[in-house]
Amino acid sequence: MEAISVFDIFKIGVGPSSSHTMGPWRAAQKFLNVVQQRGKLSSVVRIVTELFGSLAKTGHGHGTDIAVMLALSGDDPVTCDTATIDHRIAAIKEANRIRLPGGAWGKSQSIDFHYDQDILFHIHAPPLPFHANGIRFTAHLTGGETISETYYSVGGGFVVQEGEHATGERAVKLPFHCNTGDDVLRHCRASGKTIPQIVFENERVWRSEADIRKGLLTIWRTMAECIYRGCHPPTDAMLPGGLNVARRGGVMNRKLTQGFGSSGIREYDDLDGWLDVVRHSTREFQQILKWVSTFALAVNEENAAFGRVVTAPTNGAAGVIPAVMMYYWCFCRSSEQGIIDFMLTSGEIGSLFKKGATISAAMGGCQAEIGVSSAMAAGGLTQVLGGTPGQVAMAAEIAMEHHLGMTCDPIAGLVQIPCIERNTMGAIKAITAANIALESDPDRARVSLDDVIKTMWETAQDMMGKYKETAEGGLAVNVSVSVSEC
Ligand code: SF4
């Protein structure tokens, strides 16, 4: 099986969806690269994008069209200015033109782009055979020639080109190759190392020690900044999309920080000052519970508003791991090394689910998103609270066991209801699972991590298609939303 780095699992990007926003964004970039490598970029007169399966059915709500337009304009999800996305998309639609990237590729050029004709949502066509998230690009060149490629967004921002095989980075030989939870535990027993230690050794195949540490701490900082922004939105106005979902991260943060200082709210003016306030909050159970929920809500409200988030392992579930990491950072005996160990451990657990089941809601429903993120967070937290490798695996198993069968039924195809609150539930379940595992003997567990991964995959295959990110079942059909609302 392929080798997956922790940096493949945790990727900095833009909301609201890893499979429907980030994946198509990367696919469009790859396609431009193909055209450029064939020396044909300057001959392009039109690019048509066709969306199939779940991408067609929920692509509007998940911003697939926006991601494609930004990618074709040369934007990158890691660096693009998220504050100007609305403005730039409106400008493309109004001008009916899009400017393809230049820079290292040569001179940028503006081509015709008619939104209704050049991004096609094939809602009634069957999905493409390989995966439920298919996307095809066709570049029309001067002289009538065309170049066409098909890609699949397979979850978590991962993209596969039709006919592609594992090469280069994916084909490397790792010192501790793991396809299953059993493999991980066997390596730990044989080497006497912890899970993050063996994952760190694997990562060294791709990066230096310094780069691994720096990269993981940058990702953690991005997660923390996302929580901070979500707790301090410019307004408490509704989230975009027309569903009239109110932001709650800012409201809850204000209530939780009340009662300090003369102004009634403890003074701070940046992320580090705010972290200090949170760390000095009262340690009552209910207070901590509210903080964890606020962290998760904040991230997923930012995600729904096309803000900068980190896939963990997906965007829809981007709040679970940051919320649990922030819980660890603010309310446990924490350290920078703990943050690194948390991410190495949870990243490996995410890889196991990707290899043995799926992290795509279009393939497995929400158990593949919130369920996997909760299992990852549970394992990471157990590690940094002193758990053994067996207890880490047990925590991940417990967290997933109680998400099995969870469907994906986003109302109006937006990543808002049930998605935003669902992240709070995933975070709380992860903390509970970690605490149960820390008090348990994993040798007496009756269900292994591999058992639950296999069960999740079989459940995914049995799940009806309408519950797999199509907005054709569950809450998406039982909650009446007028067309004008969305
Ligand atoms: S219901 Fe779950 S899987 Fe579906 S879009 Fe929302 S968070 Fe993602």
Q: How does this structure look, described?
A:
The strands form 3 sheets. A 5-stranded mixed sheet has the order 5-2-6-7-8. It has a two-stranded antiparallel sheet with strand order 1-9. A two-stranded antiparallel ribbon has the order 3-4. By secondary structure, it is an alpha+beta fold. Helix content is 49%, strand content 11%. The protein folds into 2 domains: 16-168, D-3-phosphoglycerate dehydrogenase, domain 3 (60s Ribosomal Protein L30, Chain: A); 173-485, no CATH class. It binds iron/sulfur cluster.
List unreliable stretches of 5+ residues: none
Proportion of strand residues: 5-15%
Radius of gyration: 22 Å
Ligand roster: iron/sulfur cluster
Q: Name the structural class.
A: alpha+beta
Summarize the structure.
The protein is an alpha+beta fold and 486 residues long.
Main features:
486 residues, alpha+beta, 60s Ribosomal Protein L30, Chain: A, 11% strand, binds iron/sulfur cluster
Sequence-ordered SSE layout with sheet pairings:
Elements: H1 6-9, E1 11-14, H2 18-37, E2 44-53, H3 54-62, H4 64-72, H5 85-95, E3 97-100, E4 109-112, H6 115-118, E5 119-121, E6 133-141, E7 146-155, E8 158-161, H7 181-191, H8 195-203, H9 209-231, H10 249-256, H11 271-279, H12 285-304, E9 308-311, H13 320-331, H14 336-356, H15 361-364, H16 370-384, H17 389-401, H18 419-438, H19 449-462, H20 475-478
Parallel strand pairs: 2-5
Antiparallel strand pairs: 1-9, 2-6, 3-4, 6-7, 7-8
Helix pairs in contact: 2-4, 8-14, 9-12, 9-14, 10-12, 12-13, 12-18, 13-16, 13-18, 14-16, 16-17, 16-18, 17-18, 17-19
Bound molecules: iron/sulfur cluster (SF4).
